[in-house]
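Protocol step 4 of 5: obtain the predicted structure for the target chain.
Materials: sequence only (see below). No template structures provided, no constraints applied. The aim of this step is simply to have a reference model before the mutagenesis design in step 5. Sequence pasted as it appears in the construct record:
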Amino acid sequence: MYATFSHGTAGVSFSISLPKSKNTKMIIASVRDLCLQLISSAFQRCHASEDLCRLSVILKRSPQSDPHSVLISVSDTGVGSCLEEFGGVKLHKEAFGAQIWDGLLFVTATSIADDEIYHYQFNLKENVSARRLTRLPSNPKNGLKFSGTEVCLSIIESIDVLVAEFSLFFQKILILKIPNVAIELVVEHGDDPGSRYVNVFLANEWNPLSIPASNLERLKSGLEDYVFKHGNTLSTKCELCFSSWEHLKVGSGVACCTESCKYSGSVMEAVIVISEISEVASTCPRTHGLKTEVLYFKDFSPCPIPQSSLKALTSIDWKSYGLSFGSVVVQGGFALVEWENLPTYVQIDIVLHHYHEQYPNLDSILNFL
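Step 4 output (structure tokens):
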């Protein structure tokens, strides 16, 4: 499988190996990783819906009797979830060792065709699959047509730590520029209304795309925004660093698997942005300095980069494009590329997105800039 990425008048070609099959079993290392997985699943349900959807994450400090406990609610108005989605979750034993979570998930779900709202309790500490699920009493919908899911759990963790991690996750999700999903992060410190904090993340709030737009067009525009807004930490473009759009050179490409019908519908998209930052803007934030974080998405969700994609990056003849590849370091599943002799005013950003046919693919041919 091959993809070609344009930069000026030249192309860059490299091979990408895609997974042979999807694994329904999710092995999760920590409770915080589980929370991110729950958010990812909610976002995917919203993306699969053709309607406008809301994804809400609410963090609420527990009563004074247990001041270190945080109630986490992840809810969405997308297509309804299924039991298999939670039954396939497995956590490493170390995730329970610190005694920060009792292993319980409380799930409320309904699909558009259901006549009831269903409630479940999952005990992920239970090793016997048949004992994990407890069905709780359901509620009638009284003829109303709607769908959605809410997952709740209580953990012992700092709210500030969770807010920082979830915000970073949402800032990356915005790169996909999925137009029908609005995301809100709500923090409540007790019952005082004045202690309520709300942060809303909207994909097209600053630089809207024309409709319809392909997944690749959204990815390109989203990475440009990510660069202009210093990792989406700003609400609009940093005029100090980027006084003009001409400061960006953008290359993109799509690879569709054609080697076997068994893998049909598997798509890899990639965008590379090389930006020249004004030298007077040296005080502006650059999260990784002169290094490049390779942003990787799997099925419309941020995730660690696989070894096959790392190998593809290192195999590119970067020198033919005036770049000298130094090394790549994987930290916590995320890749940082270090370049040799890269000018201090130059920044390189890379994003890869691999997804399967059950998600909409509006662009099935190579696209060159």
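Step 4 remarks: DSSP finds six helices and 18 strands in the chain. Residues 93 and 113 are 38 Å apart (CA to CA).
Proceed to step 5.
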